[in-house]
Structures are given as structure tokens and as C-alpha cells.
């Protein structure tokens, strides 16, 4: 929902505001819907600014989601590798203790 100025005319935004909104989507990887809501502007308005800046809003949102998913998966892989290393250490300790206990 776009904020209306006096007498129902659409509100005007300066170029710095528009560029900042576009940067929030393109550089910070935030969804255009969330950025528009946070800034109090219409999603279509932000999409038109993205288009004017040479970006495809739908494609940018998809790339942002894909990048976020990739980060999540990388974090999960790191956590799983850490768990495997810890379990391998426990297995090694158990093997050594079994060897010690089984000696006559």
C-alpha cells in the first residue's frame, strides 16, 4: 500500500531512498516483499525501482533465497562434520579401552 501525499497524489521518493531500497534487496539479499513492508512502500513500487536499476525482481528474490539456502546447507555440513569428528574420537577411545581391558 503506497502512502498518499496531499490530495491523494502518490508520494515521491528521492533517488537516495530508491537506491537504498534497491541495495537492501540486491546487496544484502533480503526479499523485496520484506524490504517494501519495512520501508512502508508498495511491493510493486520497489519492483519497478529494481527494474529501473537493471534487476529482475523475481530473479533477484530467487537468487537471494538460493544463496540463503546454500549458506544454511554449508552451516549444516560444518556441524555434521564436527559431530562426525567427535564421534570418531569417542570410537577411538572406546577401541583403546577395549584393547586395554582385554589384555591378560
Question: Could you please describe the fold and organization of this structure?
Answer:
By secondary structure, the chain is an all-alpha fold. It has one domain. Helix 2 packs across helix 3. The longest helix has 46 residues. It is rod-shaped and about 95 Å long. 12% of the residues are buried. The model has no long low-confidence stretch (mean pLDDT 85).
Which percent range describes the beta-strand content?
under 5%
- Straight-line distance between termini: 82 Å
Q: Pairing-aware structural class of the strands and helices?
A: mainly alpha
Summed over residues and divided by their number, the pLDDT gives a mean of: 85
Number of strands: 0
Low-pLDDT ranges:
none
Element-level helix/strand string: HHHH
The description of the largest β-sheet is: none
Share of residues in helices: over 70%
In DSSP terms, counting alpha (H) and pi (I) runs of 4 or more, how many helices? 4
Shape descriptor: rod-shaped
- How big is the Rg? 26 Å
Number of structural domains: 1
Amino acid at each position: 500500500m503506497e502512502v498518499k501525499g496531499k490530495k491523494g497524489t502518490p508520494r515521491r521518493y528521492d533517488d537516495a531512498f530508491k537506491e537504498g531500497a534497491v541495495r537492501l534487496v540486491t546487496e544484502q539479499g533480503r526479499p523485496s516483499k520484506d524490504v517494501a513492508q519495512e520501508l512502508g512502500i508498495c511491493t510493486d513500487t520497489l519492483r519497478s525501482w529494481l527494474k529501473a536499476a537493471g534487476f529482475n525482481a523475481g530473479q533477484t528474490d530467487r537468487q537471494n533465497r538460493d544463496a540463503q539456502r546454500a549458506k544454511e546447507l554449508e552451516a549444516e555440513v560444518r556441524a555434521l562434520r564436527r559431530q562426525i569428528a567427535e564421534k570418531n574420537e569417542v570410537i577411538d577411545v572406546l577401541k583403546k579401552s577395549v584393547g586395554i581391558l582385554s589384555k591378560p
